[in-house]
Design goal:
Layout: E1 2-12, E2 21-32, H1 48-55, E3 63-68, E4 71-72, H2 78-88, H3 104-115, H4 120-146
Antiparallel strand pairs: 1-2, 1-3, 3-4
Helix pairs in contact: 3-4
The protein binds adenosine-5'-triphosphate (ATP) and magnesium ion.
């Protein structure tokens, strides 16, 4: 469960003199239940990335509270923020962001390494499962086109 209560994120506005600020998020409140899917939409500069950075534990709010699975994350240390991100958050990027000089298996094992410890057999199973699912969905897509 994701909960944000009266969250604001202000950035210093370098172009403005005398400590001006950009109010990227202003007193924002949101609750997302387990299993719920949410799409964040809005024009460029409306604060989507700012919000995702806060939910993803890449950044802290200027004020307000954030809970992930009941754990308060708005004001925790960087080390704890890194732990919560490793345990609870998954990012899917438009680009794959794989490490190009590692094999596919080593890329999976790198994620294991950051999370806890590497286990080659488990990594291989996960990779094979992902590839099998991908192949299955590929066949489904091409057969539905033919139907
Ligand atoms: N690190 C930063 N320093 C200063 N201002 C920032 C910073 N990051 C974002 N901003 C400003 O905060 C506002 C919200 O930006 P944000 O990147 O969250 O918008 P967005 O909705 O993701 O936009 P886009 O659709 O272009 O990706 C903008 O005015 C932006 O210029
Ligand atoms: Mg953005």
């Amino acid at each position: 469960m994701i909960k944000l209560q009266n969250v604001s994120r202000l950035y210093p506005a370098k172009a403005e003199a005398n400590g001006g600020v950009i109010r990227a998020l202003d007193n924002f409140t949101l609750a997302v239940d387990p299993g719920e899917w949410v799409a964040i939409m809005g024009p460029s500069g409306s604060g989507k990335s700012t919000l995702v950075n806060l939910i993803g534990c890449l950044d802290r709010p200027t004020s307000g509270e954030i809970w992930l699975d009941g754990e308060k994350v708005a004001n925790i240390s960087t080390a704890d923020l890194n732990r919560v991100r490793a345990e609870k958050v998954g990012f899917i990027f438009q680009q794959f962001h794989l490490i190009p000089y590692l094999t596919s298996l080593e890329n999976v094992m790198l994620a294991q390494y950051f999370h806890s410890m590497t286990d080659e057999r488990e990594a291989l199973e996960a990779l094979e499962h992902a590839l099998t699912t991908f192949r299955r969905s590929s066949r489904a897509a091409s057969s539905s086109e033919c139907a």
